[in-house]
Specification:
EC 3.2.1.21, 757 residues, binds beta-D-glucopyranose, Immunoglobulin-like, alpha/beta, GH, five-stranded parallel β-sheet, Cellulose_Degrad_GH3, TIM Barrel
Length: 757
């Protein structure tokens, strides 16, 4: 980087202004805290729920009187300018010091205009689009009175049994880190005190996605080496991007639950990473430390505060015990002051002390939500998130003519389209797949539809899988009767679209599964549909990688649409009928069966690796009954067109510390459609002081090529891209040999070697 005198002067002026602003804020808060009683300070640490979305057994009570008494610092899951104005008025006009409240919400993948679930958004690999989705979410949520979102969720997960894999960006460290950065920037914008930006909260700190057996809230036991190299970087990326707040995770980490883990919250987060913002617990996470076995409520509340946690979500452990702990010398006044200061700072940065009602505009609520532009972006994002898994004989795209039968339990449920964690979505007014398709296609295509089968055969399971209003109608007649009726509808069609998979609440929080097949009753429907001899396209709804071995073998075309948000139906029509060529690529490996889990591309080699392409070798690392290969690898996704990759060209064979190497590859659109391709670059460090993964994603570029067009994509790799945390947890690059791979997915790559001198 070249440093100019003018550049240096500008940086110094900027630094000076940040310093002046910080001093102003410090002065203001010191002054305010000087007037606060210890009770009022503890009151600021209390975050209660407004009751619109509840994820635990506890619900906040007596909110109004607590606000007046100064016993509430923040409220979440309450929205609309009217309600928020009312609560804010109680705080600023009726509490002794008039300290405004911060208003939070789980704005995870859109506010009212829902974008695809985060795993789907990750499949776009489109950083601009992802940032834009967060910006739109911020515009809408702030228009409805909110100023703080519990997002981004950046927990890496390599276990699709874990339902919350749907809420993150998948298995990869690099991709997740890039997305974390974009989400924070999209929410927070350039100016946190603008009336249309939200404060971000990176969660769940930390390692929540590595819960044992994919069971939610479960234990994580992990080496520091793996943490630093694979699981922690996305949190750090969000913090480096300026995330204002951090949320603790529910899980135990190497013997100390995150919410009481001083090493995590103080040594790592503050001392090593320099995080300066506020840490909030997850829902009743302090109280849950009792069940983790760390002591009674007073003990665990003190432990949590001392660990570096500042705000207590819903459980009121801080509110009910910290004063006593202070009197008994179990916590210090300085610890309470620090927590209170950081919460007040967050409010200050949001501009709430200047104008506590800055987010309460009826006009903005009326004009800035579900706008035409927002919906158009959501439709584009949905279409770009879809991953074409199979397309035999170019069955897709379909022609806009004739009759299409859309059959399956996901065909007619608008409430399931937004996907999990869409608490603010208007479920009743979300179009179903069929309605959206009809809307997009007009009268060019005749659409017929039928339920085809229940979501799952067992009524009690279906109830668990369709909670929070995500209903899918049930038909209690014998399965064969329902299927036969559906087949009669299908027989009148030219093409069958099978709308199958998971209901949206089959993934997400507390939705772990051990069987990742399409539910058996739906599989039987699919078999019957295939037997008609008509072309069948499987439009697959899912919040996680499923095991699709049977479907891959028998169904000619599979389009994985995750849960695409408000505009799902229209976007599915856009892609099925070729207005948009699919370009999504998997952000997580699809295994052949559950027994292979965890299965991820960036694994270690072992001392007995299976020979490339081999099925089984005795005394090698493999299974007797299934190959080591995934069904669909990380980064995989087809297009209607085809892309050919040339050979990789390097501008030099070796680089010294501080130098760059340039890798060029020419990609040609050799098919019959214009299309977008995500060109992926992986690196393997062949020899190290510690073992290194067989491949790691280090760069990618999404390009758009007209049919017949070629483009040379250039990547610049620097010494920094070769760094990793060594045994002493020093982030360093080691001289030696490397292989660089480029290709359309993690498996199918060209390669070339180079050296770091
Ligand atoms: C979830 C968090 C969420 C919180 C508040 C918890 O159950 O784990 O992700 O932000 O509830 O709704």
């Amino acid at each position: 980087m070249k440093i100019t005198i003018a550049g240096l002067l500008i940086s110094l002026v900027q630094l000076g202004s940040i310093y002046a602003q910080d001093r102003k804020m410090d002065h203001f808060i010191t002054n305010l805290m000087g007037k606060m009683t210890v009770e009022e300070k503890i009151g600021q640490l209390n975050l209660v729920t407004g009751g619109e979305a509840v994820t635990g057994s506890a619900v906040s009570t007596g909110v109004e009187s607590k606000i007046k008494e100064g016993n509430i610092g923040g409220i979440f899951s309450m929205s609309s300018p009217a309600k928020i104005r009312q609560a804010q008025e109680l705080a600023v006009k009726h509490s002794r010091l008039g300290i405004p409240i911060i208003f939070g919400m789980d704005v995870i993948h859109g506010y009212k205009t829902m974008f695809p679930i985060p795993l789907g958004l990750a499949a776009t690999w489109d950083m601009e689009l992802i940032r834009e989705s967060a910006r739109i979410a911020a515009v809408e949520a702030t228009a409805d009175g909110l100023n703080w979102t519990f997002s981004p969720m950046v927990d890496i997960s390599r276990d699709p049994r874990w339902g919350r894999i749907s809420e993150g960006s998948g298995e990869d460290t690099y991709l997740s880190s890039r997305i974390a950065t974009e989400m924070v920037k999209g929410y927070q914008g350039a100016n946190l005190d603008a009336h249309n930006t939200l404060m971000a909260c990176v969660k769940h700190f930390a390692l929540y996605g590595a819960a044992e057996g994919g069971r939610d809230y479960h234990t994580t036991d992990m080496s520091l080496h793996r943490m630093y190299n694979e699981y922690l970087p996305p949190y750090k990326a969000a913090i480096d991007a300026g995330a204002g707040t951090v949320m603790t995770s529910f899980n135990d980490i190497n013997g100390v639950p995150a919410t009481a883990n001083r090493w995590l919250m103080t040594d790592l987060l503050r001392k090593q990473w320099g995080f300066k913002g506020m840490v909030v617990t997850d829902y009743t996470a302090i109280n849950e430390l009792i069940d983790h076995g760390l002591g009674d409520l007073q003990t665990v509340s003190a432990l949590s505060l001392k660990a570096g946690v500042h705000m207590d979500m819903v459980g009121e452990g801080f509110l009910s015990t910290l004063k006593k702990s202070l009197e008994e010398g179990k916590v210090t006044r300085a610890e309470i002051d620090e927590a209170c200061r950081l919460i007040l700072e967050a409010k200050y940065k949001l501009g709430l002390f200047d104008d506590p009602f800055r987010y309460c505009s009826d006009e903005r609520a009326k004009n800035n939500i579900l706008t035409k532009d927002h919906l158009a972006k959501a439709r584009e994002a949905a279409a770009k998130s879809f991953v074409l898994l199979k397309n035999d004989n170019n069955l897709l795209p379909l022609k806009k003519q004739g009759t299409v039968a859309v059959i399956g339990p996901l065909a007619n449920s608008g409430a399931n389209m937004p996907g999990t964690w869409s608490v603010s979505a208007d479920l009743a007014n979300t179009q179903s797949l069929v309605d959206g398709m009809k809307d997009a296609l007009g009268n060019k295509v005749k659409i017929m539809t039928h339920l085809g089968s229940n979501l799952v055969a067992d009524a009690a399971y279906q109830e668990r899988a369709t909670m929070f209003g995500r209903t899918i109608p049930r038909d209690e007649r014998p399965e064969q009767e329902i299927i036969s009726e559906a087949i009669r509808v299908a027989e009148d069609a030219d093409v069958i679209v099978a709308a199958l998979g998971e209901g949206s609440e089959m993934s997400g929080e507390s939705s772990s599964r051990t069987d990742l097949n399409i539910p058996a009753t739906q599989r039987r429907l699919l078999e019957a549909l295939l037997k008609t001899g008509k072309p069948v396209v499987l439009v697959l709804f899912t919040g996680r990688p499923l095991t699709l071995t049977w479907e891959d073998k028998h169904v000619p075309a599979i389009l994985n649409v995750w849960f695409g948000g408000t505009e799902t139906g229209k976007a599915v029509a856009d892609v099925l009928f070729g207005d948009i060529t699919p370009s999504g690529k998997l952000p997580a490996t699809f295994p052949q069966n559950v027994g292979q889990i965890p299965l991820y591309y960036s694994a270690k080699n072992t001392g007995r690796p299976l020979a490339e392409g081999a099925w089984f070798q005795k005394f090698r690392s493999n299974y007797l009954d299934v190959t080591n290969e995934p069904l669909y690898p990380f980064g995989y996704g087809l297009s209607y067109t085809t892309f050919e990759y040339g050979d990789i060209k390097l501008d030099k064979k070796s680089i010294a510390a501080g130098q760059h190497i340039q890798a060029d590859i020419t990609v040609t659109n050799t098919g019959n459609y214009d299309g977008e391709e995500i060109v992926q670059l992986y690196i393997r460090d062949l020899v190290g002081s510690v073992t290194r993964p067989v491949k790691e994603l280090k760069a990618f570029e999404k390009i758009s090529l007209k049919k017949g067009e070629s483009r040379t994509v250039s990547f610049t790799i620097s010494e920094d891209d070769l760094k990793f945390y060594n045994q002493e947890l020093k982030f360093t690059a080691e001289p030696g040999d490397f292989t660089l791979f480029i290709g359309p997915d993690s498996k199918n790559t060209k390669e070339i070697d180079f050296k770091l001198l």
